[in-house]
Fold this protein.
Amino acid sequence: MTSNQRIELASQFSAWQATKATSLNAPTEVKTIPLVFHVISPSVPSVAEVEEAIVQLNDAYSNKGQFETNGGADMEIIFDLARTAPDGGATTGINHIPTDYTNMDMDLEDTDLVNHSHWDQSKYLNIWLVNSIEGEALADYTGRSWWTRSGVGGYANGAGVVVTSLTTSLVAHEIGHYLGLFHTWEGRNCKNDDCLLDGDMVCDTPPDKSTGGCNDNSCHTDTLSNYSNNTFFIDTLDMSTNFMDYSSCPLDFSLGQKERMHFTLDSSYPTLSVTGRTTSVLQSPCTDVRHINFYMDRQYPIPNEEVLFQSNTMGNTTNYRWFVTPSDFIWKETDPRVGLVSTLADLRYTFPNEGDFKVTVQAWDVSDSTCFASFSRYVRVGCGVDARFYPDIRVIASKQPHALMTDSVRFTNRSYNATSYKWTISHQNFDSTNPSLPDTTSDLKDLHFYFEEPGEYEISLTAINGACEDQSNVFNLKVFDPTMEGSPYIEEVLCSSADTLLVLFSLSNNGYDTINVGTPVAFYDRDPRYVATANLMGTYTLPGFIYGGESNLYSAVLAGDITAIDELFVSFNDTGTVDLPIQYPPDDRNQLSTQTIFPPSGYSELTYSNNVNSYKIDVSGFTQERDTIVCDGQVIGFDFEDMFDPSFCSDTVFWVSEHKGYLSSDLQLNYLANEDDLINVVYRSVSGMEILGIINVRLGRPSFDLSDTVYRVRRGEGVTLKIEGDSSYQYNWTPEEGLSDPYEMSPFASPEQNTRYTVEAVDQYGCITLAKQVQVWVETTAHLPNLFTPNGDHSNDYLLIYGLESIIDVSFKIWTKNGVVVFASNDLVTLTKYGWDGKYRGKPLPSGVFFWGVSGTYEDGNPIYLNGVESGVIHLAR
């Protein structure tokens, strides 16, 4: 949802609120929503099972029974099975329509699924029950752990909801979406400037960016937005028990969510719900229980071929009417009762042409012709072929190997009655001013496609059997540009000596790919983008990687007199060897890899617009007096920068204690703090100024406790390192690797290897606690590099499998794109110690892309995967 759409929705909600005289807590009239279940699977739950599921659903929405919580609220919405069909016939509210679409794709086949059976959504809430849904609820990327993806158990569409089970939490969640609710972690940030616009747009659910876990506290912005409209006056835990979270402990809804649901019912579905249970669709037109449905003897009828529709009835029925009409895919009360084709119990019908049809049956007892049961479904008549497929992933970042970020998608074909296939992959550059790739086609049954360039792709499948062809729906895939993007920021400039200065700067990677070791950074005394006479003050090369989505802090010592510089500029990805002003190459964002233009460093970027940052140096201000709280019994270091503006360097400093007398004349002072004291500081600057400063030393004793000192996680997963202590303290965790935020009180840790973290706390006065340690043990999995360089330089000359151990058997092969196996082994030592040297039959193979596959079993019985998959690609570079 765009920001403008949020503003419009919030405006509509506020206008609706103004029409309501009662408060959130005041009782309102209970609204009843009729449900109709369309069971798209071979087996169908009984009426009793569905009714019990509705009982549990009503408890969930009423904050009753096992779902009663102190913080939960009664939504004053209940659900009941429809007992009257749109044409006035009796029904159980459960339609059984077994088809292949019980295993369906959310992005490709929602319309096809709905078109099997769809009742008027202005009077019924449609629920489609399927066996499985292909789709992605979440796809998260970090440079360290690659992609983390979550599957789909259900979703809401414009006509109702689709679910894979009748589990209360799932059905309650998806109906919540249908009634206007977002996830409690919507946006997955902590923004809370206006609780009616930000996050889930509900003011009594706190800001939340965590999609799982119970009792988390992922945000500390709860008290913003006017205390979230007088709801949160202190920081609170995430609402992980809320049905609209993804946690494992869903139990309730909030009062604010109740208000949102009633707003949606009034504004979007004004005729869907009724007060009480007085609506005719909840009452059967018959005094006894009657129901009818029918089954087809073939799922994919063709013209001029007889189809048997066999009725299945419950209750007293002796008479029948069958109707066949062109379909508009929605069964409504106003549909004309035309197209009578038979009065027999079963219908044998031949469709004259291809198209979409609605087949309806009505059955009644001769003793009461005014009361009938009815059933209707939609039938697509084609040439006998149905083109269908689904992708294994839904979003990637990929570009040809210059960025080592080539990724692929597997498209699984599940078409019906086809003997041959044609895949079409169309590319459109995100930037219409840049060229796009020509269409690619394939005649394989299943397609495993490597996307070499970023952009928007359309993937479609034509299924063929003789003269019969069927075109699948189009899958739209966004392939993002993975190129790295660096953004520097000068944190502080300090005087290091009379002729040097210390620069503290951070560097963020806003791209997917890693910023490499050795990437250059240059410093100037004027803006190098515009001033040809700017002086180069020094260069710095990165000592380590910066993974995608992460940032690191660095320091550099530069030659120069800080008092002679008004502003310092940092320039990322700059060797300092080019003529000024700097002329950057065109941004690489959404360029085809063949059109990339590299700067002198050799590292292209998505954009160069944020490569320069500056820091103004102000030497006019002084801090004359300060209070310092230190830990009792610890030695604390002072220098003139603790007391004065750090831009000045001093020739002579005198330190004098109120209790201990003269202390030192050095620039720095190591002071043993064992009592409250007052230290006078006098220094003479290089400009001849004498300044008196005062440090008031006070003793402090902060403390905290660790909830646990040892954790175990699997590689790629993580755990919250919980602290019990004062939330106002500043907590410092080291090392930073694997931490969501090294300065968070209880950060989320997801290290790549066994890591012992050290944490210390700094109170509001700067007093540091004794450090404590937490051990995180990481259960590793086997992995294989995607690049090796067998060029004889004794570096990366062999392709080895890492982390493979404790196995029963293993088989590993490498082959060319033509299927020629160039390396194979089932020996653990060979694979992990010696590897493949890039040769085939003793001769070096040229640079290129090769494919690999692995199979085997660990001692615990689990299959062996490399990098989490059983096959992949490697790049051989010489």
